[in-house]
Amino acid sequence: MTDEDWMWHALRLAQRAEQQGEVPVGAVLVRDDYCIAEGWNQPIQLHDPTAHAEMQVLRKAGSAIENYRLIDTTLYVTLEPCVMCMGAIAHARVKRLVFGAYDPKRGAVCHALQLSDAPFLNHKIDWLGGVLQANCAELLTDFFKARR
């Protein structure tokens, strides 16, 4: 499957978050073209500020493979990760990150903090942003318009 195929999968998961009243962000962790784990935002439902889509996936994947190090994996997420999620992604040793919409205000890959290039992190993450950007951004924009 291509990056776009996996991002479509993440978008479907983001729609699931939206149906639950959560900010519509979805994520999928893949190794060797196999989905290890998937998740979506659930902080409201779970009463957990750390229950971002990325964190959900990392937790599920660690349990699935019985290892907190997620070597040689690719994480697909519909929104540029925040600082919390980027820290967890680095600690998990995710090899590659692919995201859809950019987050100029809170994004920690290439915007607010640019943690993808931080010299103090002991793991370098290859990343690609803007995959299905218009679709991912539209879902978020429509969600927040409806909430206002």
Task: Fill in the keyword field for this structure.
five-stranded mixed β-sheet; single chain; tRNA_aden_deaminase; Cytidine Deaminase, domain 2; 39% helix; alpha/beta; 148 residues; Cytidine_deaminase-like
- Based on the coordinates given, report the CATH architecture: 3-Layer(aba) Sandwich
Radius of gyration: 14 Å
Q: Can you tell me the residue ranges where pLDDT is under 50 for at least 5 consecutive residues? A: none
Strand order of the largest sheet: 2-1-3-4-5
CATH fold node name:
Cytidine Deaminase, domain 2
Note the beta-strand portion.
15-25%
What is the tally of beta strands?
5
User: Total domains, how many?
Assistant: 1
Instruction: Tell the overall outline.
Output: globular
Describe the sheet with the most strands. 5 strands, mixed
**Quick one: CATH class?**
Alpha Beta
The CATH superfamily bears the name: Cytidine Deaminase, domain 2
Class derived from helix and strand content: alpha/beta
Alpha-carbon distance between the two ends: 37 Å
State the helical fraction: 25-40%
